[in-house]
Predict the 3D structure of the following.
Amino acid sequence: MKPEDNPQVKAALRPDEDILWQGRAFDAGLPLQIKKTGGFIQRLRAFCSTSAPETHNAAPSDCIYVLTNKRVLQLQAGVLIQEWPLMLGMVQKVETDPDGSGSIIFDYTQPAGRGETQPCGMMHVDDVASVHAKLAAAIDAAYLASPWT
């Protein structure tokens, strides 16, 4: 399905936004073949690891990230749950796994319970280097288009 054909993504867009990239999050730590095929093993691992402390920044497999010319959106089960405006310096770091997938960590945090915070960003996306390059280009274009530059 093309991004513009997804009704949940379409509903989350503003009239002046264009989709530059859209992708689904993968469960961290799974081999690439399982990440791409999903199925029983992926769901079982996600179910068994929900209370594990090392999964604090794991994105659910029903999570969709959308990069537009104005912001990054995170939808879960078709509902917009987070958005980040494109800003200079918003990318804190990029974590790359051996298979090329990884996470783009933003300079934001969110509550994780008991007074703790966890990082925000585009967690566990395929071909993270390509996504990071598209995000960097979108940030540059948004900054150059700003009337305050």
Summary: Residues 128-145 form the longest helix (18 residues). The helical segments are 7-12, 32-37, 40-48, 128-145. Strands lie at 19-24, 63-68, 71-76, 79-85, 91-96, 102-113, 116-125. Residues 31-57 have pLDDT under 50 and may be disordered.
